[in-house]
Amino acid sequence: MAGGKLTPRQKMINMMYLVLTALLALNVTNEVLNAFHLVNEGLQSSNGSLTSKNDDIYKAFDKQNADDPKKAGAYYAKAQDAKKIAKVLFDSLAAYKVAVIKEAEGVIPPGEAEEGDIKRRDDIDIATRMFVEEGAGVKRGKDLQKRINDTRAQLLALVDPADKANFKISLDAPDPKPEKGEKLAWEFKTFNHTPATAALTILSKFQNDVISSEGSVIEYLIKKIGATDFKFSDLAAKIIAPTSYVLSGQQYKADIFLAAFNKGTDPEIFLGPIGAFKKNADGSYEPQTSKSAVPAGFSTQQMKAEGGFGKYEAVGSGVGDKTYTGVIRVKDPVTGDYKFYPFEGKYQTAPKAVVVSPTKMNVLYIGVDNPMEISVPGVGQGDVQASLNGAGTLKKDPANPASYIANVTGVGKCTINVTAKLDGKMQGMGDKEFRIKRIPDPVPMTSGKLRGGNVQPGTMKSQSGILALLENFDFDARFNVVSFEMVFSSKGEIFKAESPGPGFTPQMKAFIDRAKPKDIIFIDEIKVVGPDKQPRKLGQIAFTVI
Predict the structure, then answer these.
(1) Rounded to an integer, what distance in angstroms lies between the CA atom of residue 74 and that of residue 79?
(2) Across the strands, what pairs with 271?
(3) Confidence label for 352 from pLDDT (cuts 50, 70 and 90)
(4) CA 48, CA 57: separation in Å to the nearest integer?
(5) DSSP string covering 394-430, please?
(6) What single string gives the DSSP state of each residue in 145-173?
(7) What's phi and psi for 369, nearest 5 deg?
(8) What is the pLDDT of residues 469-508, one digit of tens each?
(9) With 0-12 CB in 10 A as exposed, 13-18 as middle and 19+ as buried, what is 162?
(10) CA distance linking residue 207 with residue 184, whole number of Å
């Protein structure tokens, strides 16, 4: 724009240039203002997303506190404090935004602090007047800076001292660095000559910092709930069954679950009595916490462990149910105390044996105790019962839980039925048929066990009577001679005598005393009674005197 006298045409061109320049300047300003408007909308959207995320964390806090208030309670309380602290500053920022919008002649939706359709969005005096210049004796800018920094300090106070060095939050309002040697106030640097729409964006940005910092703190706190839990690096499918021994017809049951463990860290396991541990109604044991590294009554010798698992080994001895107990020791990473988790295991030992059933020899004898061994593999003797179906009885031997005594009374057959308690109820295990027989006849002989044949007179005179003995019979069965006859033949004469018992009568002894070579002595009509109380007649015995 040169000086001097200008022609009307030149003056018009110059005027148009000035108008164009103003218009260009106005377009740049509108672009900047529109950019602030877009950024503010983005911040509002981000605030909504962050708030939703924080709400989800608070819901997780509610659940963990309900499930385990002892572990989550302290952190839950801190999270509620964080929520209150953040809300106070967030609401203050929202109130400032409402004030800016009103000053800029904007429209405020009910219950919200949005930019709305403000008319004076380029007004640079509103923010300056509200936050830089002193109004009604209060410097709102300084008050806002203090509120921001106080809120930051309160949120950081919820973080454990050991974690503060590495914990960062975005909420902050530090004093600005001097520019060209001049120290500027925070509120001057932030709001002086700032358009109204930019001031709203700045306030939204601080709201975003509040929500983000609140989220960082509560996310940290909810992670701290599990920080004292024991960490595991590996997972494996495991099966626990009350027994791996299942009989035909019996239902197999097992608990299948996913076990967590550390392959690189072997558990510390000790065997010992767990009677001092409290037992719950469901049969499980409650863990104990102790300063002592080993519970009272336990050996300091640890169980063998490998690959993250304890390895229990025992040599089977004796017969029956065996139980082993102990504890798993874990050191609390927070308190340094030891936690002991009790366990109980069972197994059953059985003798090495094969089952051979000679079907032709399944015999029970009348009149004697027939001992029997009855058991069900995999079932304790206390849960096994047997009965006899037929002529006789079956009773347990008090001296041996696995032994039974069968007493039968009539010739024929009987059946031994076996039941066992499985899964809490008695179930049939099967039956076995036996033949019932009389005890074999005993062998008659003299008191000196002479069975007939040639005999010296002196040898015969030394005998006192008749016996009936069982030979090659495994039972302790005795037969009593109740009567017999003696026939004495000498030189063609026959003499006869009877005895009411096992002994020789005086008359019989007289026959024996008279005996000469070639005389014959017959023992006949021998009657005996055995354990079955039934009389029997045995064969004769013949002696020739030599």
Answers:
(1) 9
(2) 326
(3) low
(4) 14
(5) EEEETTEEEEEEEEE-SSEEEEEEEEEEETTEEEEEE
(6) HHHHHHHHHHHHTTS-GGGGGG---S---
(7) -75, 120
(8) 998 898 889 999 999 999 999 988 999 999 999 999 999 9
(9) exposed
(10) 24
Kind of pairing between the strands at 493-499 and 268-271? unpaired
**Which 8-state DSSP code applies to residue 182?**
B
β-bridge mates for residue 325, sequence order: 344
Q: The dihedral of CA 348, 351, 355, 360: what is its sign?
A: negative
Residue 514 is encoded by which pair of tokens?
């008279």
DSSP 8-state code for residue 438: P
Tell me the two tokens of residue 464.
Answer: 């006192």
What is the number of H-type helices and E-type strands within the chain?
8, 23
Helix, strand or coil, per DSSP, at residue 196? helix
From residue 71, alpha-carbon distances to 188, 359, 361 in Å are 47, 68, 70
Return the residue matching tokens 């106030």.
185
Number of Cβ within 10 Å of residue 523's Cβ equals 26
**Taking the model in full, what pTM does it have?**
0.44
The mean of the pLDDT values for the chain is 83
Distance CA 117, CA 103 (A): 12
Residue 100 CA to residue 104 CA, distance in Å, equals: 6
User: In this structure, what token pair is assigned to residue 379?
Assistant: 């079932």
Q: Which two tokens stand for residue 354?
A: 């094969």
pLDDT, tens digit, 9 for 90 and up, residues 125-172: 888 888 888 654 457 888 999 999 999 999 999 999 988 888 999 899
Nearest CA-CA partner of 123 in 138, 107, 105 = 105
- What does each C-alpha distance from 44 to 51, 205, 206 come to in angstroms? 11, 9, 11
Cβ neighbours for 301, distance < 8 A, ≥ 6 positions apart: 270
Give yes or no for a contact between 325 and 343, defined as CB atoms under 8 angstroms apart: yes
The length of the chain is 546
**Structural contact between residues 341 and 328, judged by C-beta atoms closer than 8 angstroms:** yes
- Residue boundaries of the structural domains of the chain: 25-225, 251-349, 359-437, 443-545
Supply 538's token pair. Answer: 């045995």
- Residue pair 60/76 in contact by the 8 Å Cβ criterion: no
Listed residue (250, 239, 331, 236) closest to 292, CA to CA: 331
Q: 1.20.1090.10, 2.60.120.20, 3.40.50.1110, 2.60.40.10: which CATH number matches 359-437?
A: 2.60.40.10
Q: CA 330 to CA 340: how far, in whole Å?
A: 7
- Closest alpha carbon to 423 in 280, 245, 253: 253
Region 181-193 average pLDDT: 85
d(CA 247, CA 245): 7
Plot region of 525 (φ>0 → left; ψ -120 to 50 → alpha; else → beta): left
3-class DSSP state of 33: helix
